[in-house]
Amino acid sequence: MTARLFAAPLDLGNVRLRNRFVSAPMERNYCEVDGTMTDEYIAYLERRAAGGAALVFTEASYVRADGKGRIRQMGVDVDERIPGIAKMAEAIHAQGALVGVELNHGGRTAQGSVSGFVPVAPSPIPCAVVGGEMPEQLDGDDIEHIIECFGEAAARCQQAGVDVISLHGGHGYLIHQFLSPAYNHRDDKWADPALFVNKVIDAVRTMAPDIALGLRFSAFEAVDGGLDAETTRARIDAIDTDRLDFLDVSAGNYESGQWIIQPGEWPRGLLAPFSEQYTRDFDLPVGVAGRISSPEVAAQIIESGQADFVSMARTLHADPDFPNRALDGGRYRPCIACNYCIDSLAAGPVPCSVNPWVGRELEQPSKPAAAAVRVAVVGGGPSGMAAARDLALAGHRVDLYDERGSLGGDFALASRLHEYPEYLRIVDWYLAEISDLDITCHLGTRVDAAALAGLDFDAVVLATGGRGPEVDLPGADTRRVRDVREFLESGDPAPAAITIFGADREAAAVADDLLQHGTEVVMIGPQETIAHDVGRRGKIVLLPRLAKSANLTTHLSSIVTRIEEDWMVISTAGDERVVDAPGELLISHGVEPRTDLLAAVRSLAPRLGVHTVGDASGDGGSIHAALVTAADVAAKITAAADAREVSA
């Protein structure tokens, strides 16, 4: 029943979706700096089309240069962009999917450091989230010019073979700024919140009459003075929806970014109740976004009539085959909603924590090894499981060893914490994958070089992880002192009180979890801020929660200089003082690679070498880094095996 529901076609204007899965607009920074489409981006989008999505959108694409908000954002602002878009459209069409482009202007969210222009907006209200540059207020002539730019951009897309245009009327961008009482303080005719978007709709319909046209909007802003759900509905009622072919419901703006890209702690499908009234009251297909990361949630939304199609960004970022797997009931790689993708936007091309080939589709191996070899993988954390899986998929014979009684490593420990409820999904996915492949698991087995010596492995992969650095503190014998990972591995219940030396990602997550259990937590960190090593979106919910907790005491920019039974001496900028510090002391100072086995295993000189991955290689520190090193090492071993076969 569910598969038939997903497979039902849907008409958007003059085009037909083959199913109800839409690869939503998602900024990726895969274009050239000037906004031109690249082969890497085409390969990424083509892969989502091959995975079964009915409609594949590119991203919020700027219609005028001063509306650019990302370093390598896609542009539709000049005719020079057309050939790249046409090449992209041809590739997606070849996979049986439709092509969509989302037209946008950043307004107050675009900054001169990126675009090279002074930002413009309906009213001069800066956006502190992206730097706080004061925008110039648009005059009437410039507003009319931007409207023309939307129409011209749509014409370029139509010429390039694009099937669907979505106007970005949400997330705090220019159309949204005109709609919102928080950002439109004008007293001229453009104070009418619907006038700008209606004129944009008219321009697009005039200049690209054959293209399907829709509007994406935020159901609410969740900021003081902004649009609530009732006011948004009034705005949509005032828009010329009779000239649209669909609506697509999202939420939030830059000041409430947690509603644009929701954290993993929040319920899946949480925006569907807000799309329901639009599905019911408008004679248009309606889509909805928001943590739709399982077939069950997608099915419930469509079956209940809350939406006609589902808009998925991170879900298909993590696994482009999600639509096909939802249709055939197969296994899919789950998104864990860690928001590493969105937090990487400012730096460049967007990766994925759980899919190491995102953005690298052109490099991904697609053929099995010509020569199968035998490989030992020592360590069953994420990098070890990933290396074992990739090697087995290539056709190699793999033995996977771990000294613990179960796979998953420290990442599985982290999945128990309040902040990371989705993390266990990727561990379970690897376990299921491993059980289906030719991988022999040896759990509860501590491996040394002697044990490997007589087994004639062609290659050895060390995924032995890391350990917390040794911390020698005066008075450490007065109470129990453990690394934070040792504490998690012990499974000990939450104590009445605890002190944590460190304010990094792990310290923050453990403190947050213990606070949920009523523990009194004292955090002493050399860092100036809590979770300095986590991106803004990754802690957008965490930090306010910690700040509100009456049970958390923090001493930042401080180090512990002496430990006593119930108190400690800490130093802040060279000034020492005594602070209450109850309970045992947990140390959270990162990890150092475990290299105990490295030299000894290298002495065995396996034919295809010894390789380190994840924390053991020094390239860990995140699930993304761990999985990328694992994927690359597996590909390297396969290439070496094939080269050896050819030379032989």
UniProtKB/TrEMBL annotation:
Sorted UniProt keywords: Flavoprotein, FMN, Iron, Iron-sulfur, Metal-binding, Oxidoreductase
Coiled-coil annotated spans: none
Domain FAD/NAD(P)-binding positions: 374-600
SUPFAM superfamilies: FAD/NAD(P)-binding domain (SSF51905), FMN-linked oxidoreductases (SSF51395)
Annotated GO MF terms: FMN binding; iron-sulfur cluster binding; metal ion binding; oxidoreductase activity
Cofactor dependence: [4Fe-4S] cluster; FMN
InterPro entries to which the protein is assigned, alphabetical: Aldolase_TIM, FAD/NAD-bd_sf, FAD/NAD-binding_dom, NADH:flavin_oxidoreductase, OxRdtase_FMN_N
Superkingdom per UniProt: Bacteria
Annotated NADH:flavin oxidoreductase/NADH oxidase N-terminal domain residues: 8-327
Family: In the N-terminal section; belongs to the NADH:flavin oxidoreductase/NADH oxidase family.
Name of this chain's protein: NADH-dependent oxidoreductase
Species in which this protein is naturally found: Rhodococcus oxybenzonivorans
Lineage, top ranks: Bacteria, Bacillati, Actinomycetota, Actinomycetes, Mycobacteriales
